[in-house]
Every structure is written in C-alpha cells, then in structure tokens.
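Why predict the complex rather than its parts? Because the way molecules touch one another can change local conformation, and only a joint prediction can capture that. The input here totals 608 residues.
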Amino acid sequence: MSGPREVPDEPPPFLGTWNKVYVAVLIYLGLIIALCWGFARALE
Amino acid sequence: MSTLDWIVLFGTLVSIVAYGLYRSRGSNTVDRFLLAGKTMPWYAMALSIMATQASAVTFISTTGQAYVDGMRFVQFYFGLPIAMVVLCATVVPVFHRTKVFTAYEYLEQRFDSKTRALASVIFLCQRGLSAGLTLYAPAIVLSAILGWPDRVTIALMGVTVVMYTSLGGVKAVTWSDVQQMVIIFLGLVASLATVIVLLPKTVSFPDALYLAGAAGRLNAVTTNFDWNDRFTLWSGLIGGTFLFLSYFGCDQSQVQRYLTGSSIAQSRLSLLFNAVAKIPMQFFVLFIGAMVFVFYLFAQPPVLFEHSQMELIQKSPAFRPLAERYAGAFNQRRAAALRLIEAHHTGDAALERQRVTEYRAAQRAIDETRTDASTLVEQSGGERGFSDTNYIFLSFVTRYLPVGLVGLVIAVMFAATMSASAGEINSLATVTMVDLYRRHFRRGASDHHYLMASRWATVFWGAYAIASAGFGRKLGSLIVAVNILGSLFYGSLLGVFVLAFFFRRVRGTAAFWGMVAGEAVVFSVFKFTNISFLWYNVIGCAVVILTALAITWAAPGNARTSAA
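Output of the joint prediction:
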C-alpha cells in the first residue's frame, strides 16, 4: 500500500509569518471574550 | 409537515448526498479513500471540520441549553482558538512530514506498537459511542414529527450514512460537509429572523434582549471559579483548551480532516478559520435559544416539550392540577414580563428592581412546575431522570415556523447529522484498518485489499453506531453527553501526544502505562466525584505525563524502542 504524498510548507497568505497570524488569533480571542463579557453585563 | 416541507427536506438531502458522491468519484485507492490524495483546499477542510463538530446536536441541544440555562455554554469554546494555535505550530507540520494516515501511526514512530495500539483502541471506544449519539439526534426529530420509533429512524439514517461513506470515502464526507455548512448558516439566519418576527408587536427587539438578560439567559461570561460548575470563563479557557487540544490533535475524526490538505499551510488555515469562526457561530446558536425563551414568555409553551412523555403524564390524576398551576404560572410570568418592560421604559430604577424580582420569581414558579412534571414522568412509569432540553427547539420549529422553512430546518438537522456521523464512521474505519488490521493482522497485502478492508470497516462501524445509538435517550442534554464521553478518554490521548512531542526522554513502556493510569484516574473521578467534565482532560493529561515521567525516572536504563 502506498503512503500519502509529501506536502509542501508555505508562508501564510497574510501577515507575513505564521507567528504573527497566531498572535492575531489570540488578540481576536481576547476581544471576543471582552465583547461577550460586555454583552452579558450590559443586559444582565 | 406540509407537502412543501417534505419536498424541501428530501430535495435537500438527496442533493447533498449526490453532490458528495459526485465530488468523490475516483476514490479507488487507499490514499484517495482515506486522505483524498491530499488534494483538499483549506475552505473545504475548514467547513468540514466545523460541520463534523456541529452536527444536529448544535441545533437541537445547544438551543435548548440556552433556553433553560442561558448562554454561558459559549465559554466552553473559549479554549478553542488557543488549542488551534498550539496545534498549528506543533502537530500539523509533524503529522504531514511523517506522512501518516492516522494520528496514532505517529505514536509507533515515536514510541512503540503497543502505545499505538492502546491509543487506537481508546479512540475506537470513545468515538464509536459518540457516533451512536450523533445518529440519535435526528431520531428525536423524526419521532417528534412523525411518531416513528427511535430505532427505525436511527437504522434508516445509519444505513444511508454507511452507504455513501463506504462508497465515497473522506472526499464524499468533506464535500457534503461544505454543502451542510451553507445550509446550516441559512437555517440559522432564517430561524432567528422568524423568532424575532413572531414576538408580540408590543415587544421590540431591545425589549426582548432586556427580558432575556433579566432572566439570566444572556449570561455569556461567568467569572466565578468553581470546580463543579461546568461552564465558567476558567473552565472554558483552561479545561476547554485541553479538550480541544485533545479533540483536534488526537481524535482521528478531526485529524483526518486536515490531513487531506494539499499543503501544511492549507491545513493550518482550515484550523485557524475554525479558531475565528466557531465562537461567533456558537454564540449565534445560543442566542436563538435565548430568543425562543423570550418568545415563550408570550406564547404558552407545553408543560413538557416531549410529546410522548406529555401524553403519558396526561393520563395521571395528578396532571390536571399541575397543568392548572402551570397555566397560572405562565400568565403571571407574562404579566410580570410586560410590567418589567413598562418599568424599564419609565427609567424608575427602584420600580425596575422590584419588577425584576417579581419577574424572576414568576420564572422560578414555571421552572418548579416543569420539575414537578418531570418527576411525574418518572412516577407514571416514564424515563428516569427525564429531560426535555433536546425537544425545546424542535417543538418551536414544528409549531411556529412557516411552511417550507420547517422542511429546511429539519433538513439541516438531518444533513448535519449524516455528515458528522459519516466523518466519525470514516475515521473509525481508518483507524481500524490502518492501526489494527494492516499493522497487526494482515501486513503487505495489496492496495485493493486494504481499500476493500476500509469499506468493510466502514460498514462495521456504521452497524456499531446504529446499535449504540439507543443509549442516547438516557443521557439528558446530548451536547453535554457527547462532551462528557469525549472527556473520559481525551485526557489520556492528549497526555501521550504531549509526551511524544515535548518529552524526548520518555519511552514506549512509560507512555503506555501512563495512558493506563490516566484512564483509571479519569474514570475514578467521573464515578466518585462531582468535578466538572471539562477538568477530566486536564487531570487525565497530567496523570499520563506524571506517571510516564515517574517510570522514566525510576527505570532510566531502558533504551527507547524507536526513533521519532
């Protein structure tokens, strides 16, 4: 049985490096939590 | 359902299955059947990952969860972006470079065959049971609408899933998932728009938000720390991160999705898309449940949303006084809600506080009556520990949504379930074939032989899922049941992968016994404590690592059996 083929690694299509993309995702998470918290407090 | 609903339902289902099979033509080698020949674009993998995780449970159970408990379930997903970032940076490139078919294949490269076999068996136990629950969800739909027995609908759905999964492999699963997510999105938007339109003319959208919030249904973030509380900010961030690391890093049903990527970047993008999109999507689904709660403030809901159990207690002499008490409690709550809106509009803070107290007391009276009705179910010979959470949204859909939209929403549930179940069965077959059959029972056979073995394994796991689906009814909220089941096993799997990636000195025997100890401790915690299931992953992972490190420290002389 043949194995899967080799796949290439590539830079991300935005922000230049993968590390910058990861940081952007974590900042986004912080904003989402802040928004959810604000939403809950405002309507409690 | 009307004729139009049936046409929409069957038209949608047939088109999804046909499209998936059309896109999967040429899946005639093991590599193409199990990994789509590593040709999938990121958006197809991303939507497939989302659809596999969403399933019908997302519609049925999450909305019900918001109705009875508010939106705090969204915190469960706060750990997901963190887990995705960790996996993209560590696991994804390693799995691609080692050219594995399954996550557990890597464990043999890093440790030994017994560690790989144990991890495979743990996965098969956990995912096999979950596949049964995934099939059970649409059985509720058909039971509620057609009065069919659960077992018949489970078998019908299961057989359909097995047919297209065994024919088209992972490509059929992935491309049908893409269509699923488009339809799911349409169904979500249509459901929310409808529930808002159906609110009384005197209740504006801001009023609806205010009433939901005052009843604690918009509690999206709770910052208290409590080991026994399932959904808090901390259990979501810490426990959720561990759960999603396990789910997306060690569970073949997800790993197989991103192993089909045409490059490492495509696989990373598919996971990061989920990191960004999943929380807003879950928020949206929960918000629909909160709005259904507001809708039922003004339209009297049934005492119980499950029709057959309702019929059962109606025969009891205790039902009539209970129903009268419920009607009275509903009228009081509706009046309290209207008075609260009035007080809110006047801007009188003292009056508003008083009205909020009245409104919450009226809600408690409703909750107590429903609890008494559940007790009456047991006393009348019905289900023990009865919960109708999973029936709330369905009841709303079938009673209040317009013709055509009912068929669409039901089609969404069916299609999503079939897709999620197909993904699970596909991954179960892959692990059975690659990690057990090809590794331990039949080595060196032809590609065609393994392709046929994969198809037969698909049939076997489909039958297993159908058989185990009958347990769904006994498990309360389905979405919680699915995650509890996962958490019983995921911690150990995560622990052994953490050892593989970050503890280079640990060897196969230490990793193997670490997993055994991890499972023993997690099952003990489940059996003998009230600790929330989200912490099982943390505990299991920690026990595996500590046990393996202790064995490595105690017996440092044993050489590692194979290199990474």
